Amino acid sequence: MKKEIQKDIPTRKGSLILLFLTMVVIIIYAYLSDSQSRLDLYEFIPLEIPKIEIVDKKVGVDPLNAFYLIDGQVVKLENGASPEFGIVRSPLIVDLDEDGVNDDAILVLGKGLEGKHSYYITAAIKYFYGYKGVNAVLIKDALTVDKVSYADKKIKVNYSLDKRKETAYFQLVDNQLKGVE
Q1: What is the DSSP string of 75-97?
Q2: Residues 119 and 161 both lie in one domain
Q3: Residue 137 class from Cβ within 10 Å (0-12 exposed, 13-18 middle, 19+ buried)?
Q4: 113 and 138 together in one domain
Q5: Does the residue 57 lie in any domain?
Q6: Cβ proximity of 180 and 171 under 8 Å
Q7: Which residue has the higher pLDDT, 33 or 124?
Q8: In the predicted model, is pLDDT for residue 71 greater than 80?
Q9: Cα distance between residue 89 and residue 10, in whole Å
Q10: Which residue among 15, 94, 113, 143 is buried most deeply as judged by most CB within 10 Å?
């Protein structure tokens, strides 16, 4: 009986080796045939990463250091201020252009003529390469601004005008801030 078991062992060993070699051949065949289909796929995929050009050089690193269009002139804010304008309070961080990335709504105070100040609302749109400021809209004759909030895709500004409370709404349309009802 011992001799029969010993005769059977080489047969099992041979079967295992044959099975192993068969698997190796199948794997090599599958890899080679699949590599051809991978080569076909690579013909359609560009291997170079396209160079990204920033067309508009007026891009800031953050909302406090960006360019804005205020009263028809390009104004560069540095640390939230320029000689004529300054950010009044912390920016309101919301997704204004609905691209899934938070932008900033900013309240700016401008030095007006005869010591009279003017409030503006503007926005800094966040792109992957920095922040781009948009146009600023004058908040008519506001003496003080009480609150800036965001709801229903609109920036809401509550302000005081000669002891009366007023509300103005603004919305980003085609990267332009506009007053809306």
Answers
A1: EE-BTTB-SSEEE-SPPEEE-SS
A2: yes
A3: buried
A4: yes
A5: no
A6: yes
A7: 124
A8: yes
A9: 86
A10: 94
Q: In the structure encoding, which two tokens stand for residue 57, read together?
A: 């050089």
- Alpha carbons 119 and 168: distance in angstroms, whole number: 12
Find all residues with CB under 8 Å of 115, minimum gap 6, and list them: none
**How would residue 2 be classed by pLDDT, with cut points 50, 70 and 90?**
low
Tell me, yes or no, whether 78 and 129 share the same domain.
yes
The whole-chain average pLDDT of the chain stands at 80
Please indicate, yes or no, whether residues 81 and 170 belong to a single structural domain of this protein: yes
| Residue of 79, 53, 56 whose CA lies nearest to 66 | 79
pTM equals: 0.65
User: Within a domain: residue 74?
Assistant: yes
Burial (0-12, 13-18, 19+ Cβ within 10 Å), 77: buried
Of the residues 26, 51, 76, the one at which a domain ends: 51
Q: Domain check: are 22 and 109 in the same one? A: no
Task: Please give the C-alpha separations between residue 65 and each of 73, 76, 131, 153, in angstroms, as whole numbers.
Answer: 16, 7, 8, 25
Q: What pLDDT is stored for residue 37 in this prediction?
A: 52
CA 89 to chain centre: 23
Cβ neighbours around 177 below 10 Å, total: 24
Cα(177)–Cα(63) distance, integer angstroms: 15
Enclosing domain of residue 155: 67-180
